[in-house]
Specification:
mainly alpha; 68 residues
């Protein structure tokens, strides 16, 4: 079995499981696809929050460095 085919079980409470199933149904996706989408969107949100943070002094200095 290749790495992307490996499976791991996770435990969630019944309410969470039911909500994932409901969302999967609404989205026309499997539970696995719905969880993968949720994780991807959480990751994108995290990256987005990092991107809107002001640059640190060392980042500004690096961007302003004379490369010539």
């Amino acid at each position: 079995m290749t790495r992307h085919m490996e499976r791991k079980a996770i435990r969630v409470d019944v309410d969470t499981h039911n909500e994932i199933k409901r969302l999967a149904e609404v989205l026309g996706m499997t539970v696995r696809q719905t969880i993968a989408l949720a994780v991807r969107r959480l990751h994108q949100d995290q990256v987005g929050r990092q991107l809107v943070q002001p640059l640190r002094t060392e980042e500004i200095d690096w961007l302003d460095a004379d490369l010539g």
